[in-house]
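Take a careful look at the protein record below. Let me know whether the structure tokens fit the sequence:
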Amino acid sequence: MIHFTPKFYLIGRVTHTGTQRDGTPFSQVWKTIDSLGSGTYGDVVLQELQGSPGGGCLHAVKSITKKAHKNNKKILTNELKALIAVKKHPTKVVTFHGWYQDSQQTMFIAMEYVSGGSLERYMRKLKRVENILISSTSPLLVKICDFGIAKSADIDASGLKT
């Protein structure tokens, strides 16, 4: 897991500094280019990596304020643990890229951007399908993107249990 440290904030732009797994420091500038939606605990925006290497790379970034989850750190910890635990299923669950927190105590979770959108656009009668994203339409591949802040998840050596 990568823990990003935001260096400074401008409207719609953030610079992350951090350390890669091999200990190499890095700095990245991400620009918010679109709003993807909102839910119970926060909003999701589309961010694009600026410059090179990797310029043009897209992430979906979920923001979760402490106020939204009543300052319960366990809720956020469970969300991160769930994302890490299911990382071994990249064809079924969005890829978790890392997280960071700003000075206003808002947590940001960076995940894979799935361009097909949610099934909600295609199947209006199903409930809570906005958390199932379409990775490909031919063949049809879907990925799960939200674990409801994983409020009922327990993680152990065997994997995720609810």
User: Anything to note?
Assistant: The chain has one helix and eleven strands.
